[in-house]
Design brief:
This protein is an all-alpha fold. Helices cover 76% and strands 0% of the residues.
């Protein structure tokens, strides 16, 4: 018999997993699905339009089939791109939460945001501008974390 099965107390998982370790990556992936679905469906729609611009339908049935096929291609493109963006943003949010030890603890926001800008560079940003943007946002987040810890020590001590 195990000691856990005989107890009627509920098992609390809070000390093992903090909420940010599963809420932040899940919400980032959720946002990534929506961003990717919108962008992917728009790109798929324009691609279908460009591929079929040389032969427009001439009958009512042809227009029906054209729009039906275009909508299916839009949904497929949106789901594919949504999955990719969800995986990118979820993985980036997860890596940003890792514990690297005390020397690297102060630089985790900067590294995470530079990784974000490097990974999501598909928005047509040059490398230098992407790293500059990541450095600015990461430095700002690091400053906010530092100021929160500083104010906590001032209030407590």
């Amino acid at each position: 018999m195990s000691s856990y099965g005989s107890s009627n107390e509920p098992y609390d998982v809070t000390p093992i997993l903090q909420s940010r370790y599963f809420i932040l990556p899940a919400s980032a992936a959720f946002v990534g699905v929506f961003i990717g679905a919108v962008r992917g469906s728009r790109v798929a729609s324009l691609r279908f339009l460009a591929e079929n611009a040389h032969r427009p339908p001439k009958t009512i049935r042809g227009w029906y089939l054209y729009n039906k096929t275009k909508n299916y291609k839009r949904m497929a493109g949106g789901l594919k791109s949504g999955g990719k963006d969800a995986a990118k943003l979820g993985a980036t949010a997860k890596t940003g939460l890792g514990r690297c030890g005390r020397p690297w603890d102060d630089m985790k926001e900067l590294g995470s945001w530079c990784g974000d800008c490097r990974g999501v560079r598909g928005y047509r940003l040059p490398w230098g501008r992407a790293l500059l943007l990541g450095s600015m946002v990461g430095g700002g987040m690091g400053f906010l974390r530092w100021s929160r810890e500083y104010l906590r020590t001032v209030v407590e001590g």
